[in-house]
Amino acid sequence: MNSFEFQNPTRILFGAGMADQLGEQVKSGGWKTVLLVYGGGSIKKMGLYDRVISQLQQVGAKIVELPGVEPNPRVTTVRKGIDLCREEGVDLILAVGGGSVLDAAKAVAVGVPYEGDVWDFLIRKAQIQGALPLGTVLTLSATGSEMNGNSVITNWEENLKKAFGSIHAFPKFSILDPTLTYSVPADQTVNGIVDMMSHVFEQYFSSTPDTPLQERLCESILQTVIENGEIALMEPTNYAARANIMLCGTYALNGGMISVGMQNDWATHMIEHEVSAIYDIAHAAGLAILFPNWMKYVYRERIDRFVQFAVRVWQVDPNGKSDEEIALAGIEATRAYFSRIGAPTRLADMGIGEEQLNRMATETVRFGTVGSFKPLNEQDVKAILQMSL
Amino acid sequence: MNSFEFQNPTRILFGAGMADQLGEQVKSGGWKTVLLVYGGGSIKKMGLYDRVISQLQQVGAKIVELPGVEPNPRVTTVRKGIDLCREEGVDLILAVGGGSVLDAAKAVAVGVPYEGDVWDFLIRKAQIQGALPLGTVLTLSATGSEMNGNSVITNWEENLKKAFGSIHAFPKFSILDPTLTYSVPADQTVNGIVDMMSHVFEQYFSSTPDTPLQERLCESILQTVIENGEIALMEPTNYAARANIMLCGTYALNGGMISVGMQNDWATHMIEHEVSAIYDIAHAAGLAILFPNWMKYVYRERIDRFVQFAVRVWQVDPNGKSDEEIALAGIEATRAYFSRIGAPTRLADMGIGEEQLNRMATETVRFGTVGSFKPLNEQDVKAILQMSL
Q1: Is A53 a domain residue?
Q2: Which of A90, A145, B311, B346 is deepest in the core (most CB within 10 A)?
Q3: How far is CA A293 from CA A276, A354, B12, B115, in A?
Q4: pLDDT value, residue A241
Q5: Whole-Å CA distances, A181 to A97, B338, B341
């Protein structure tokens, strides 16, 4: 286990009907002017918008709106939010939506007290020193953004998709109501499942020795997502399944609690960012395609971890099998699960051929090798993309 | 899963040599006058006292000392600390030691801004509204006090041992250096192992349905403690084993993260408090004796949880066994483990007979039944104590 620092100050309010606690949260924080950040309008269709507005009005808050946050949130939208906050004297940012909405709201939050352009934080030109307080009401189980300080923002002018992480960007509170995810369509439910499993993979496949607790915490989340994912897809209003998935999504990436002291990998995310930067496919679709192939490419680096993964997470029977066979059975079980729940398994499924393959590989390693489990150079990335065609 | 609120703002600094980060923590907090709280002097023997003092001096902090905190910390000592803070204008309380020292420091922290007597918080006569900031340097893996807002304080004048929990009492930072536990004697290492396992038991044996993630998180801690406990006892300076145990102790009771949305039990702790209130035995010794007997008394309430416990935590082979047999094998494995690491298994081992048995049972249920997995009345408690003789 490596040395580490860990802190996660976010207050979680979890359960059916918790959205009705919003007014109380705003009141007890003493906030007066709220920037309401949301996406394309699904929160209006589901009646959540009206509930939020009425909660805010009841506590006398002034409401400023930033609607229309994109699925891959854009820095232009973030800049608009920052301007609004400054003009209207906003003292609380409230994100109502999924990971993209939350990520955009975080970028607004850290951008307001900064004199330069918020994009500076994404390209590491400046360091985040503070933020407006942020609250969230989550409508999609996936990214874990509700309990971490991470944000991914896209800059289409420069064709760049970049991330930042900061202790200042953790939400002050996050309201997690599993019933708000009942109406999430099947494909987005699938994306959420793939997303949270991928977050765990990036932490679990690590070369750091002596981390038995962390490995088991990761396996706990994977097993629970795997079991409950299929139930939620068959029964979208099954409370227990939706609640279990929601909690898994949050714990999968809540500031690194499940992988403290472990070196993370994140190579597959970096490759996927280049795929979706060119083809604008859903992040999770790219991850579902790439991860089993990444696994096949790297498993020999530390076959014991892949054997453990196969046996503990997928209940592969190790009897009479070589380590190689066990490890490969676990990888195949991962691919088969993604396929079974309806995620794509090949780039061809998304209409992607080898035309841009070299460009994606080159961009992925622009700043050097990616990943730590097996550091990948351009040839490695190209090979994984080739396997994924 | 029940609805829940969860927040844990404590910053953790974990790893070998982390005690040398203390000065930086104090400096960055802007604190000037520190109340140094510690116990019987073991921190002087191990050289930690000098390191702490030198760190504090380097950042120019004024140091006020509260030494001599008892293994079962007394409210009289807490009151002394509160007086010192007020007289000297203390703005940071720094606890260096194990759970008792941390618990005493928390009580001082919440007592300073309160006009009445701190004992009011323990008997629920007043509610905690604030606290002085608290930092900790942990020297013993056991209670989890380093990352929660709980404190247990004893009042010998009234023969009462009571607990409080408050979000205000979470440490601002806790330094967890596994090498500081190298010199912990075997019996205290055993007590720590029993203590953290017992904390998980109180959460894991729950009648709340649909909590698969939380159950697995609990099992993850139990399995890791079980494996590493014996290693740490055989090789007291094995870093990996000490680090794994330390992390398990912290996660076992860090504000309820592993059991969010689950009703907890805590009956065994309440029975044990009455045993140690009369006989002044180590808390963990009482728990090691009582827990397997509590399990035997209650397992039929929800045999599936005990079957799962036996199979997943103790690898009991379920083939050809009835649920009853599997459950009992798991309970016996627990008892055998405690015995193997050197914990007592009968009250007789501690020289306790049936003389005070009725009194202990009566005191345990003074405010009604205890526990939730199976609510225990006086007869139940008496039966469990009888089984433990």
Answers
A1: yes
A2: A145
A3: 17, 16, 36, 64
A4: 98
A5: 10, 44, 47
Same domain for B170 and B194? no
% residues pLDDT > 70 (chain B): 100
Distance CA A187, CA A183 (A): 11
Q: Are residues B123 and B217 in the same domain?
A: no
Query: Predicted confidence band at A172 (pLDDT cuts at 50, 70, 90)?
Result: very high
pLDDT band for position A159 (cuts 50, 70, 90): confident
Question: Based on the domain organization, do A162 and A296 belong to the same domain?
Answer: no
CB-based contact (8 Å) between B238 and chain A? Answer: no
The reply to whether residue B261 touches residue A247, judged by beta carbons under 8 angstroms, is yes
- What pLDDT was estimated at residue A364? 94
CA-based nearest residue in chain B for residue A313: B216
Quickly state the pLDDT bin for A161 (edges 50, 70, 90): confident
Contact list in B for residue A219 (CB cut-off 8 A) is 216, 220
Q: Which residues on B lie below 8 Å from A220 (Cβ)?
A: 213, 216-217, 219-220
User: With 90 as the cut, is the pLDDT of residue A280 above it?
Assistant: no
| Radius of gyration (C-alpha) of chain B in whole angstroms | 21
**In terms of domains, do B225 and B289 share one?**
yes
In a domain, A99, yes or no: yes
The tally of domains found in chain A comes to 2
The distance of B217 to chain A (nearest Cα, Å) reads 6
Structure tokens at B189: 């290492």
Residues from chain B contacting residue A227 (CB–CB below 8 Å): 212
State the DSSP H helix or E strand holding residue A288, giving kind and residue range, or none if neither: helix A283-298
* pLDDT tens digits, B231-274: 999 999 999 999 999 999 999 999 999 999 999 999 999 999 89
Alpha-carbon distance A214 to nearest alpha carbon in chain B (angstroms): 8
Q: Which residues of B touch A15 (CB under 8 A)?
A: 1-4, 261
Which residue does chain A place closest to B212, by CA atoms? Answer: A224
Q: Does A15 touch chain B (CB under 8 A)?
A: yes
* C-beta atoms of A14 and B261 within 8 A: yes
CATH code of residue B374: 1.20.1090.10
B227 to chain A, any CB pair closer than 8 A? The answer is yes
Q: Are residues A160 and A242 in the same domain?
A: no
Query: Domain containing B121 — which CATH number?
Result: 3.40.50.1970
- A20 and A162 fall within a common domain: yes
Residue A153: predicted pLDDT: 93
State whether A172 and A191 are in the same domain. Answer: no
Nearest Cα residue in chain A from B13: A5
Query: Are both B287 and B351 inside the same structural domain?
Result: yes
Which of B180, B200, B233 is the last residue in one of the domains?
B180
pLDDT at B280: 78
Residues 6 or more apart whose Cβ sits within 8 Å of residue B325 = none
- Does some domain include residue B260? yes
B167 class by beta-carbon count within 10 Å (0-12 exposed, 13-18 middle, 19+ buried): middle
A20 touching B, CB under 8 A?
A: no
- Write down which residue in B180, B206, B236 finishes a domain: B180
| Interface confidence (ipTM) of the complex | 0.97
Is residue A3 a part of any domain in this protein?
no
Strand partners, B11: B173
Distance CA B171, CA B29 (A): 13
Partner residue opposite A220 with nearest CB, options B213, B244, B247: B213
Which residue range forms the structural domain that includes residue B112?
Answer: 11-180
